[in-house]
Specification:
Helix content: 25-40%
Strand order of the largest sheet: 2-3-1-4
Distance between the termini: 8 Å
CATH architecture: 2-Layer Sandwich
Keywords: Plasmid
Organism: Gemmobacter fulvus
Largest sheet: 4 strands, antiparallel
Number of domains: 1
Structural class: alpha+beta
Oligomer: single chain
Protein name: DUF1330 domain-containing protein
CATH class: Alpha Beta
């Protein structure tokens, strides 16, 4: 069953964020993932949402999403990601 990796983030350094996006794309694709959308949060209707942007990626299944996140190739990008912004990540399975 398909899984979605959802990233909620606030960019701190735009140049580093662009580099991170460019370098992380091949890692996502290697695990069968595809970028679906990214956008700026326009309003919070109920509750809290502490970040300004949300990105959504689709993977074949939860194992692929978690495999990508924990892969050596992606882990090598964590310092760049952390310098680029603050993020919260979740994985959810398609219903």
């Amino acid at each position: 069953m398909a899984a979605y990796f959802i990233a909620h983030g606030t960019v701190k350094d735009a140049a580093k964020m662009l580099e991170y996006v460019d370098r992380s794309g091949p890692c996502v694709a290697a695990f069968g993932g595809e970028f679906l959308t990214v956008g700026e949060v326009k309003s919070v209707l109920t509750g809290r949402h502490d970040h300004k942007r949300t990105a959504i990626f689709k993977f074949p299944d939860v194992a692929a999403a978690e495999g990508w996140y924990n892969s050596d190739a992606y882990r090598a990008l964590w310092p760049l990601r952390n310098a680029a912004g603050d993020f919260d990540f979740i994985v959810m399975e398609e219903f």
